[in-house]
Structure formats: structure tokens, C-alpha cells
Amino acid sequence: MKKFVWMLCFFAALLVSFAGVTNAKAADEKKSIHLKFSTWHPPMSREVKTVWIPMLEELKKRSDGRITYTLYAGGALGKGPEHFDIVKNGLSDMGYFTATWTPGRFPMTDVLSMAAWVDGKDLAADIGNKVYAKALKDEFKGVKVLELNGCIQAFLWTTKPVHTLDDLKGLKIRTPGGMQTNYIKALGAQPVFMPLGDVYLAMETGTIDGLVTCPPLVLAFKLYEVAKFGVKATFGCVSEGVIMNQKSWDRTPADLQAIITEVVGNPFAHTHGLDKKTYAQMMKELKAKGVKVYDLPPKEEERWFARFQDVTRKWVADLEKQGKPAKEAVMMYTTIVEQAGSTCVATPPEWKSEKK
Questions:
Q1: Domain-terminating residue out of 216, 247, 279
Q2: Which residues, 6+ apart, have CB-to-CB distance to 220 below 8 Å?
């Protein structure tokens, strides 16, 4: 009888425990979350209108309204370089940050900003996510990385025509940081770092002669009004992505985490904002606004890219002195870019031969 009573009590406890787990799971599945999303992109920019708002609306739709949001655009919560910490410290729950704007903090991630022909953010995110999974996870502790990308190829935009290396000598060029700073130096120009919001006035007053950035930001900040000349030679671009505050992620129900992972894992693919088709359209828009875009002849292009390759050699040597597997990361990035049907022009040719 005692044994029977003990077993009865045991099964009763199991039933209570199971019921508790079931009820907790059911309650969790009904739980809603409100996301504060931050970005430094201007409120009326193509990024906000065609990527971030559609992405956030898609999260709301797929969750049947259980995910709601407030968008903080245009640096409402802080300047561009502060956005990683804005999210990490919980001022916003999710946000878009630029790793390249904090030199030395994410050294290996600069591999994503190597000069390559990548003309769609959807493709850049696919490439970046693969490199992150294999080589960059250790650089982003304390946050949930949802996607990482190398942006899309940046070009040189100036107040006067530039056709050769000689034309670049002594020019002051705004740099977004990272590899691009060293590319500008290697070409004989002087890199100047400043927030994008200050570039218009600096170019208008002659403080700087041009900048390196991608087409959507030339449009977003109306830089086509002061930068009337462009050189179509890829400088790569900054390394950036979407992250989520770790505590915000941890308290998000599992089913909503799955929705966020799927949609935000490549927001550009889901929204079709800033994809390859859009990129071509942006170049047409810039030309229509009077910007004269110059295509470097093959021989001159080769001279520019040879200097970019020297930058890669030095970058690798410097990081490997610190014990970081920089060359391995370059080779990995190069392979992934090539598998995506693109080319990394900053990879030294002898290294490509090694890879083969």
C-alpha cells in the first residue's frame, strides 16, 4: 500500500510539473515584444524606406502582431560610431552598426571591407554571414549578431575630375575608416575621417576634395550636389550589420526568435532593398543628377588595385604579429566572394595561386 501511495504521489507530481511546463510554454507563445530599432541612416534615406521599415513590418506581420517596434533613425539615439554600444548597452533592442567606424575594436572584421566587386547588399550579407560564422564570432561578444555584411562597393566621389593616380596626389578624401583609409593613402591622397553628416559642408567649402562611399549614401546625404565626379573603381566598403541586445534576445520567446533570425538574417534579400537591381538604378539616378562617372581603363585600374593588394599584405602582416589568422581570413573571404560570382581585387595574385 505504501509503495502504491508513493507511486501515485510521484505520478501526480509529474502531471503537475508537465502541466506547469505546458502552461508556461503556452504563455510564452502568447507573449509579445516591443523592439526599439536604431540606425544612423537618415529617416528619408533609401535604407530606412526600403529596408528597415519593410523589415520591421515583416516581423510584425509574421508574428501576427506580437512583434511591434519603434524606429529611431538618423542618429536619434546617438552618432553613427556609437551604434554598437547603443544596442549592447540596451538603449535600443536592435540596431544597425558600422564596425569600421571604431578602428581597432573589430580588427579581423575589416576583412569584409576589402575591395571587391559586390553590387548588392543581399549578396554582401550572404558573404558576410558566412565569414562571420567561420572566422569572426569572437569579435562580437555580449550581443546577438543577426547579420553581418561588407556593405556594397564604394567608389571615389570628388569635386573635380580624377582619371589617374597623378590626379589624386595631395587630395583630401573623406574615408569611412578601415581598409579604405589605407587605400586612400596608397593612392597618394590624404584620408580625412569625419561623420557623413559633415561631408556636404566640408566639400562645399573646400575643406576636403572628395570622399569614398557607396552610391546609396551619396543619394541619402545629397552629396551629388557637391561631388559632381565619380570614379568607378571599387574600394570595397565598411563592415556593418544588425545586432540585438543580448538581454532583449534572451527574453524573446523561441518562436519569435525564429522569425527574427529568418527575416533579419538577410533583411536585404527579404525586402529587396539595396539589392543588385536597386544598385544599378541608383547609379542611373546619380548620372541623371549630373554626376559624371568615369570608368578606369584596364591598365590604370590595375595600377590602383596593385596598391590595394599592398595594403592587404601589410594588414595581414600586422595582425599576424598579434597572433591573429589574418591571411587565413583573407583567403576564406576571397573564396566565398568568388563562389558568389564576384571578385576580390585586393587579394594579392600570388595568394590566389596558393589557393588553387
A1: 279
A2: 41, 42, 44, 45, 46, 47
In a domain, 114, yes or no: no
DSSP 82-138: GHHHHHHTTSSSEEEEEGGGSTTTSGGGGGGGS-B----HHHHHHHHHHHIIIIIGG
Task: Give the separation between CA 111 and CA 236, rounded to whole angstroms.
Answer: 10
User: In this predicted model, what pLDDT tens digit does every residue of 54-96 receive, in sequence order?
Assistant: 999 999 999 999 999 999 999 899 999 999 999 999 999 999 9
Nearest CA among 343, 105, 167, 312 for reference residue 97: 105
Total of domains in the chain = 3
* Residue 113 lies inside a defined structural domain of this protein: no
Domain's final residue, options 225, 251, 279: 279
> pTM (2 decimals)?
0.88
What is the extent of the structural domain holding 76? 28-106+120-150+239-279
251-305 pLDDT, tens digit each: 999 999 999 999 999 999 999 999 988 988 999 999 999 999 999 999 999 999 9
251 & 348 share domain: no
For 167, counting Cβ atoms within 10 Å of its Cβ (0-12 exposed, 13-18 middle, 19+ buried), the class is middle
Q: Do 187 and 68 share a structural domain?
A: no
Tell whether the model's pLDDT for residue 118 goes beyond 60. yes
Kindly state whether residues 200 and 347 are assigned to the same domain.
yes
Helix intervals (H) in the chain: 2-30, 46-47, 53-62, 83-88, 121-131, 165-168, 179-186, 199-204, 215-220, 246-250, 254-264, 267-271, 276-288, 298-321, 326-339, 349-355
